[in-house]
Fold this sequence. Notes:
Blueprint: E1 2-7, E2 11-17, E3 23-30, E4 42-43, H1 45-61, E5 71-76, E6 82-84, E7 94-95, H2 104-114, H3 116-123, H4 133-142, H5 144-149, E8 152-154, H6 156-165, E9 169-171, H7 172-175, E10 182-183, E11 188-189, E12 205-207, E13 212-215, H8 218-224, E14 231-233, E15 236-237, H9 238-245, E16 253-258, E17 262-268, E18 278-281, E19 288-294, H10 298-307, H11 315-326, E20 337-339, E21 357-359, H12 367-393, E22 398-402, H13 409-419, E23 423-426, H14 431-442, E24 458-462, H15 469-494
Parallel strand pairs: 1-5, 5-15, 9-12, 16-22, 22-23
Antiparallel strand pairs: 1-2, 2-3, 4-7, 6-8, 10-11, 13-14, 16-17, 17-19, 18-19, 20-21, 23-24
Amino acid sequence: MFLGIDVGTFETKGVLVDRAGRVRAHARRRHDIDTPTPGHVEHDPEAVWWADVAAVARELTAHPDAGVIDAVGLSAIGPCVVATDAQLRPLRPAILYGVDTRASRQIEALTARLGEEEIFRRSGNTLTSQSAGPKIAWLRDEEPDVWKAARWFMTSQSWLVARLTGAVTIDHATAGYFHPFYDIETGGWNIDGCDDIVDVARLPRIAESNAIAGTITAAAANLTGIPAGTPVVVGTTDSPAEAVSCGVVDEGELMAMYGSSGYFIRVGDRLRAADDLWAAPFVFPGTAVLAAGTSTAGTATRWIAELLGLTAGSDEETFAALISLAQGSPPGARGVLALPHLAGERTPFQDPTSRGVVMGLGLDHSRADVARAFLEGVGHSIAAAILAIQSQSGPLERIVAVGGATRNSIVIGTVSTITGLPQEVTDSPGAALGDAFLAALGVGAVESASSVRDWVRVRQVVRPAVADRDRLIADHSDYLALYAATAPLHRRRIA
């Protein structure tokens, strides 16, 4: 048996998986984010991450099918910044990934200091809200007492693995987002020109995702129910784990993760850098990814559902009511177009100041038109990211879609219709399955990365709607134009 646990933005999920890839048990815990001030998005590591992992682990290890757990794998949202003392105690709430946009001034200062060309050469990326380095610089500038007291600057799964094993590690796939501190040529830390912000001794040891970080300590065993001495792999962030979970491991394959935000990974046999996307190592040696992400997806869907008064009942009932309402409007939403940038936008715009817009409203429009426009707007944002990846890396051989929002037929259908590409939707518990596979690979229970395809089940294939293609492609052109027209206004108003 292999235990996989993934900590997401709003939910933690865990699975027990046997050697054949059969999921024997599930567990999950809901949680929320904290937004103490605009642009700041945080989690309490102890109250959210650790409490969830311990509870999920206790539930799964007590399951009748648990048997002997041979290895554990963890993933979590990232890249986050967690500052801890030498005893691994967090000194403040964790600063989350690209949805947290607090470090804009530090991005400008680091870019001016090192030069955009040197940053791109070193990390394969420009600095954005997805970069962890500027957030560490923000701690130095804005919370110097925390920065001085910090023994470690980690990310989410690094801290969780350390809590379980005592070993402070990070995988290459996540370290690759600690720009500008990670060197893509050497695969190690490079703090040249930044040694007043961080030193290597305060950063985790870098290792492969499926390498054994350590074993469960006695203290962790008491809190989680996982037997002491059980191997734990280094792990990775949620999106690479999600890619593994759906069998996206080869050149030209793309994973589209429809979650609270959108995240997209194209796997390749070499690094392909692009200034409006993210390049990083993948979880297996000799592989790399070109990645993109939207700031909102499920979060924008939830927001419009709340705004339209559709939140009575469970999440499933809420989203079903939203889709049902939106289906009362035809494709194109009778001319209403939405820009769903409620928390800025990541790729391909890399603009934390962008904000939501609804265009084209008239007295003849209804709640159904607004609902449809917002769901299609989320589809436009995802399609823009996927098309940007394709333009920088060449044709995509295969798209596999994962995540809860794949059940939103309007969003996923809009993406396929705009891009002209079919999407295989897997019937998978998500990143936690990828974590379990990495754990199995780490202890030699499976032969190779490609073995994960034996664990994958395709639920459906979503194909482009030919009848709607012209309408939605025209709308997509207007979506890009709407962003370009409103971006200067948003920058001025936020400034």
